[in-house]
Amino acid sequence: MNEVTHTYLLLLKSAIWNQALPALVTADWTDNDWYELEQLALRQGTAALVYDRLLSLEQSIPADMQSRMIGLCAMQMMRMPSQAALLDKVLKTLKEGDVRPVLLKGFGLAALYPRPELRSWGDVDVFVGKDQYHQGAGLLRAAFPESVHHEVEWEALKHYNLIVKGGVIEMHRVSIKLDHPRDLRIYDRLEAEGTRPDRVERIALPETHTEADIPWGPYNMLYTFMHAWTHFVDEGLGMKQVSDVSLLARREYLQVCDNPSRQKGYHDYLLRAVNGLCLDEAWQLIGYVAVTCLDLPAEMWQGYWLGGEGNVCQRRWLRKHGPKFVERIMAEGMLRETHYGEGENRYTEREKNLRMPMLLRKLKTLYLAFGHARMIRPYSSRYARHIVATALWKGWRRLWHKEETVLY
């Protein structure tokens, strides 16, 4: 880890934990060093958080770079009121129509930051479930008549998109799309348990102070972690997602400490879920980044040592693969150039126009899956095997039944 990366992590930790900064050694930095820091913060999705901390210090930042940092922070802060007003309208519309929305990601996680307006986000995510999905979509289309929406096969969608002035609304039928039937059965039970009316938690949103429901703590932690891992698998993982899960892990740990009777159930729930979904190695890797890069105390990451801290083999595995995982995140961030996970159903226009034979399309699906697994294998061999097994099952089933997959 070079000096620029070390400085970036100091700034980020100061921003998310609201701590005083130690002295930064930047007096002898060249323009290239400053440019590297600027690009690293952008690549990790944490630019406004890091720039705000840096600008509060008396550092000799190049003038053109300083103006860019000020502009980005101002733009991020100006987006907060419009996004908050949009979310407020969405929640009120659904509640007045007897649809129960549960807030995912975004504002619910921003509330955990010392300065919520500096956390970046792209859209408004609400979960309504399968039963209220059609009803919720009708309500939103009526409330936003100027919106651009997508007419596709309803039951194949993970979420329903509306593009409106001020942002994008994603109303979720399911929070995460999984392909293998075993995974679906496990996750459907976890999702139903975590979004039950008697289990959801109520928070006051930043800016508008509107009350909103967020998922039950253990399920919220599981979902946020799975969203971060999915980012790594498909697009690239940034410290933004790691910061989200770290702040959430800290919040849940403190709540468990206040109510010790919940501790065993919370611990068992998470470990049962990540083991059942073949994500135990992924869970440890994300935890490793949170603990080593963001100084999250290891005891706050439930099950950091899944086999117990005395498990020598497990400690050796994590210390071997963890640094490689951190190195890859820092090098690629959220902007990975090579996508092994382009999506098995996203074909080129030429392939769609030529009506590629089903067998060739499924062979291409398997080719992508093996490339995908090859990228994941150095970090989680169990999940890599799971990717291949799922692709083989899907390829055989869809080839045999001649099923077409909806593009989305």
What does this entry look like structurally?
- This protein has four domains: 1-61, no CATH class; 77-180 and 201-214, 2-Layer Sandwich (Beta Polymerase, domain 2); 216-337, no CATH class; 349-401.
- The chain is built from 15 helices and seven strands.
- Strand 6 (201-204) and strand 7 form a beta hairpin.
- It has a five-stranded mixed sheet with strand order 1-2-5-4-3.
- The longest helix has 34 residues, at 63-96.
- The chain starts with a helix and ends in a 7-residue tail after the last helix.
- It is of the alpha+beta class.
- The protein has helices at 3-17, 31-43, 47-55, 63-96, 106-110, 133-143, 181-194, 217-234, 239-258, 263-276, 280-294, 312-332, 349-353, 358-376, 381-401, and strands at 102-104, 124-127, 148-149, 159-164, 167-172, 201-204, 211-214.
Gist of the model:
By secondary structure, this protein is an alpha+beta fold. The chain is 57% helix and 7% strand. It has 15 helices and seven strands.
Q: State the helix count.
A: 15
Question: Low-confidence parts, pLDDT < 50 over ≥5 residues?
Answer: 307-312, 337-356, 399-408
Which percent range describes the beta-strand content? 5-15%
Largest sheet: 5 strands, mixed
Distance between the termini: 39 Å
Q: How many strand elements?
A: 7
Number of domains: 4
Global morphology: globular
Radius of gyration from the alpha-carbon trace, in angstroms: 22 Å
Mean pLDDT: 79
Q: Please estimate the helix content.
A: 55-70%
Order of helices and strands: HHHHEHEHEEEHEEHHHHHHHH
